[in-house]
Amino acid sequence: MLKYVGRRLLSMLLSLFLIITATFFLMRAAPGGPFSGEKKLPPEIEKNLNEYYGLDRPWYNQYFDYLVSIAKWDFGPSFKYKGQTVNDLINEGFPVSFFLGMESLLLAVSIGILLGVIAALNHNKWQDYGAMIFAVLGISVPSFIMASLLQYVLAIKLGWFPVARWESLQHTVLPALALAATPMAFIARLTRSSMLEVLSNDYIRTAKAKGLSRGQITVKHAIRNALLPVVTYLGPLSAAILTGSFVIEKIFGIPGLGSHFVLSISNRDYTVIMGVTVFYSIILLSAVLLVDIVYGLIDPRIKLAGGKKGE
Amino acid sequence: MKKRLSLLFSLMLVLSLFLAACGGFNKKGSTDKAGGDKTASVKQELRVNIKTEPFSLNPGLANDSVSANVLYQTFEGLTRIKGGKPDLAMAESYKVSDDLKTYTFKLRDAKWTNGDPVTAYDFEYAWKWALDPKNQSQYAYQLYYVKNGQAFNEGKAKAEDVGVKALDDKTLQVTLENPTPYFLELIAFYTYFPVNSKIAQKNPNWYKNAGPDYTSNGPFKMVSWEHNNKIVLEKNENYWDANTVKLTKIEMAMVNDNNTELSMFNNGELDWAGMPTGQLPTDSLPQLKKEGKLHVQPIAGTYWYKFNTEKAPLNNVNIRKALTYAIDRKAIVENITKGEQIPAMAAVPPTMFPENEKGYFKDNDVEKAKEYLKKGLQELGLKDVKDLPPITLSFNTDDAHAKIAQAIQDMWKKNLGIEVKLENAEWNVYIDKLHSGDYQIGRMGWLGDFNDPINFLELFRDKKGGNNDTNWENPEYKQLLIDSQKEKDPEKRKQMLKDAETILMDELPIAPIYFYTNTWVQKDNLKGVEVSGLGDIQFKWAYFE
Lengths: 311, 545
Fold this sequence. Notes:
CATH superfamily of the domain at 91-261 in chain A: MetI-like
CATH superfamily of the largest domain in chain B: Dipeptide-binding Protein, Domain 1
Signal peptide (chain B): 1-20
Number of strands of chain B: 21
CATH architecture of the domain at 91-261 in chain A: Orthogonal Bundle
Helix content of chain B: 25-40%
Family (chain B): Belongs to the bacterial solute-binding protein 5 family.
Oligomer: heterodimer
CATH architecture of the largest domain in chain B: Alpha-Beta Complex
CATH class of the domain at 91-261 in chain A: Mainly Alpha
Largest sheet of chain B: 7 strands, mixed
Distance between the termini of chain B: 65 Å
GO biological process, one term (chain B): peptide transport
Shape of chain A: flat
CATH topology of the domain at 91-261 in chain A: MetI-like fold
Keywords (chain B): Peptide transport, Protein transport, Signal, Transport
GO cellular component, one term (chain B): outer membrane-bounded periplasmic space
Strand content of chain B: 15-25%
Order of helices and strands of chain A: HHHHHHHHHHHHH
């Protein structure tokens, strides 16, 4: 087990290195720079700026300096926001994205599983159709439309929540709902289909024959086996959701990390592009690793490689 | 297995608690709202949206409109623009030398937010700081009018040589490179703001966050700055003209979405939506106009197409004329941009030359365009329009630019039979191509930095001047602009600039399309907000009725 984790960590480092390298060169290959604007800077000022940020040095120097400072967890100053470092941006933005992400993850998992279970238990009855119509809507409506819809109905028409901003708990509800809609629907469908499969198994019939109550069968025997696919899905989902969504953050004016992820590219804010990419990659890679480990623990049929010798 | 299930149920429990808590929040919120409405006294608190995090709130480093929208409230220069004219602000009086090159300002008794007096040294310090090459100011060139400003910024002169000097605490002497007839306008600009030199010398990071070291000298002081989220300003009791200031608080949110901004306004979460701080969604403009809510104000900005005058067939002036005359500008502003923009048949906006609302030629003059096309083809030795070299029209990727380009492509095809290819690129890629001359026809616009026609005309003074891009140069035009700087009589100077513009509109290295406007909605009882012709916003005189 330890050996397996160690090996996975090593390959994570390698992937991270490849990601950093690819990002660095792709970003430099794109035309334009952080100082190009509608009003062209006098050449002397541009020269000064390039010197200050080290952009005038040969690419290999810049590249190795980047690697060294990333290893030290120092991503350098932002080009676009004078006086703020990339570390500042991550330290301020990530907690916000994380909070919002946790909230929508909670919503997505709990409501999604609930809907899925209800649908499966009432297979081909109105509850099933209702839940699945809801799920299809959740999957097929894009998040920006869902967000505008929520704003219009719950904020403007009903006045229950504020339209946007990030101030109190009340402000977090609409963006969390908008962000949760798609994964919630996905989880509901996932749970339903695996529940149906599990419910048709022999051991469920045995349990029924033994005279166990319906609730006991569902909770004790069916749900826990039906949740395996959901756990698989949770890894990449949480990585994506915790680092923030550009669309949702933009529409609701949330100071999270997601907007930096996208805007830094159009701003050619080199240091922010690198910093945020590295940060996101680390979270994604660790989430995937975590899910693999948890999966092996939950389902004894799956053996982690390296656990046994001689095969 | 049991553990996992109990975890799941505890998650559900937490969620239900959370939802219940939200319900509670909500009830509290709505009763608050109702209570607020009953108390009749009007709160003098303004909520606006500034869209994004400002680049920097150090006046010497700022180079963008977001920073400007904050700095004009918190700082004050020697003058302040009101009703399009510079009023004395930090300066109490001034004298100009006969050669128009030396200004001596007497400062009024004013204080920084922390109680320190505002001195002439603060101005000298701030201007030299911005010009100092080691401080990386991208707007240092705004100070190049000051003698040796450019030389110091390029490392060719010393700080002592720069033509700004505090003679004593209250007297500031400024020597200019050339006579600059619009200098009193210029010094209202934020790069010319003072900085509290006592603090800045002690703490070079004073401007990075709100706090005791962030001092300013304007009508409002910054009390909090949550990066990427919001800025809160409060009335500055130490301001010399504090009696005029009625607003007690300004909250500036950073929401970078036009639709959300309008929704927030409709829901009573903002008192102002739209320009110059934010923007309204284009689709909403006709409806808002119909409801009579839309405010429209022309600003000093021109949207134009640049011709690369070194690429065939655009090196031929008659072809350029044909293309320029065959555009139906009225149709574009009415059907595409919808913000009551003014069709532009001139380069300088009507906020500077009011007669330019008519312009130098007729809009959509297809007859003349055809004549010029015929002449141009003859000069190029071509028999038919089809023999013209291929033309590509470039623009940066954006919905509105794309629609305008498609409309103009259609007009040229219908009116002149000229086929044009469209090409779009992401902003940074596009600007790179344009500045390096790798284009034929390119979309661009210009927003005035200061309220003088020279700001638009000098773009095309030098072929290799940073923002020309058209490779066009004309000796007569150039001479007129140079001479205008030395002309003391404003009427004569204006005529020289008009003559220059006539040359520009005859040679047409650019095809003007429309003059920009600012569009916004505001609370009905909000009064006294000053939006200048340059599109700057000032809340100094604002109040709620």
